[in-house]
């Protein structure tokens, strides 16, 4: 079964993420006398304005002026579906001054679809802390008739209008991309995928009527959906999202195998020492516990969850192993 729900994923991994505060002591131990860094760069592979960028900026605000660093900036390196940012960790400083924040897709899915991926998900980055979890939504805009109000209705409309059966996602080979593929397979219709460099530009085209549908994190849609400019057809979680409580899940609509969530994680370059990783973990978990950070991320549909480095490493391995057979079933490669 193609289940990737938040609850199942975290339970299966043994991650027990976020909450216990385990590892925070380890982050402080042995680092009490360390001098704060002059600056920290938090690298994201997506453009300003989206969920990944928002998480980075909230955390940057939370860690600057701390015992860890005097200042913190966000460096956006969009392109290649988030690969450029991950690749930039190769050879980066291992003193804690460079951190990567990335969705899981770049590490748990891309190794299964790219024959010549320019990085190794297990050696070129070092797990520091989970950042948040989130569900996905599937929305349509003014290019789709108002009579289409659910997933079955959209799939029927797409089958009747194959030249218009298009949907966008933040990147080829991402979870939102594959959600569209699996929905199309379930409905017996081929949905044509249009990859974007992040969710924000896809949603802009959706609102403008230049794109029929978009599969993306729930938080990318809420503002425009609340304004009546686009329509939620379904969400991917095991339960309804608290950010879109009136929207039924795919499972509620009869697609019981389509239960998917994802996570964002913070990573240091490969080869970073345990002492540096633990120190970064402690400051990140402190920042992620701030009310301003929690509330600010909630606006984007993100549920804050932190973890120990070990928990994130285990979660990555479990996620990687889970997605291998899913990708094989879909039959997608980067050359598809």
Task: Give the strand tally.
Answer: 11
3D shape: globular
CATH classification class of the largest domain: Alpha Beta
CATH topology type of the largest domain:
D-Maltodextrin-Binding Protein, domain 2
Look at the structure and name the CATH superfamily of the largest domain: Bordetella uptake gene, domain 1
CATH architecture of the largest domain: 3-Layer(aba) Sandwich
Key words describing this protein structure:
19% strand; 2 domains; alpha/beta; D-Maltodextrin-Binding Protein, domain 2
Question: Could you characterize what this model shows?
Answer:
The longest helix has 22 residues, at 309-330. The protein contains 13 helices and eleven strands. The chain folds into two domains: 12-133 and 262-330, D-Maltodextrin-Binding Protein, domain 2 (3-Layer(aba) Sandwich); 135-259, D-Maltodextrin-Binding Protein, domain 2. It is globular and about 65 Å long. Strands 1, 2, 3, 4, 5, 6, 7, 8, 9, 10 and 11 form an eleven-stranded mixed beta sheet that branches. By secondary structure, the chain is an alpha/beta fold.
Give a brief outline of the structure.
The chain has helices at residues 6-13, 24-28, 51-63, 83-87, 105-108, 110-113, 151-160, 175-187, 199-207, 222-226, 274-288, 291-298, 309-330; strands at 3-4, 40-44, 72-76, 98-103, 125-140, 166-169, 192-195, 213-217, 231-235, 259-269, 303-304.
């Amino acid at each position: 079964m193609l289940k990737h729900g938040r609850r199942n994923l975290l339970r299966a991994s043994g991650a027990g993420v976020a909450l216990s505060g385990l590892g925070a002591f380890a982050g402080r131990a042995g680092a009490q006398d360390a001098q704060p860094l002059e600056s920290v760069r938090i690298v994201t592979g997506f453009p300003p304005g989206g969920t990944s960028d928002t998480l980075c900026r909230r955390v940057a605000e939370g860690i600057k002026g701390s015992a860890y660093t005097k200042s913190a900036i966000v460096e956006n390196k969009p392109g290649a579906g988030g690969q450029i940012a991950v690749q930039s960790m190769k050879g980066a400083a291992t003193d804690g001054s460079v951190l990567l924040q990335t969705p899981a897709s770049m590490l748990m899915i891309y190794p299964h679809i790219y024959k010549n991926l320019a990085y190794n998900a297990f050696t070129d980055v070092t797990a520091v802390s989970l950042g948040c979890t989130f569900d996905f939504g599937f929305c349509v805009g003014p290019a789709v008739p108002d009579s289409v109000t659910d997933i079955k209705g959209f799939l029927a409309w797409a089958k009747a209008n194959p030249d218009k059966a298009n949907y966008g996602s933040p990147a080829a080979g991402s979870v939102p991309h594959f959600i569209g593929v699996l929905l199309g397979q379930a409905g017996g219709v081929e949905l044509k995928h249009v990859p974007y460099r992040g969710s924000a530009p896809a949603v802009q085209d959706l609102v403008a009527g230049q794109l029929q549908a978009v599969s993306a994190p729930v938080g990318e849609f809420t503002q425009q959906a609340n304004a009546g400019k686009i329509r939620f057809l379904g969400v991917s979680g095991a339960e309804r999202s608290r950010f879109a409580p009136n929207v039924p899940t795919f499972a509620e609509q009869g697609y019981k195998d389509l239960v998917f969530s994802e996570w964002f994680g913070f990573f240091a370059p490969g080869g970073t020492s345990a002492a540096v990783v633990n120190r970064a973990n402690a400051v990140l978990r402190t920042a992620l516990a701030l009310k301003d950070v929690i509330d600010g991320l909630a606006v984007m549909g993100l549920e804050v969850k932190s973890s120990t480095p070990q928990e994130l490493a285990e979660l990555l391995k479990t996620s990687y192993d889970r997605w291998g057979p899913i990708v094989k079933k879909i039959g997608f490669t980067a050359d598809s």
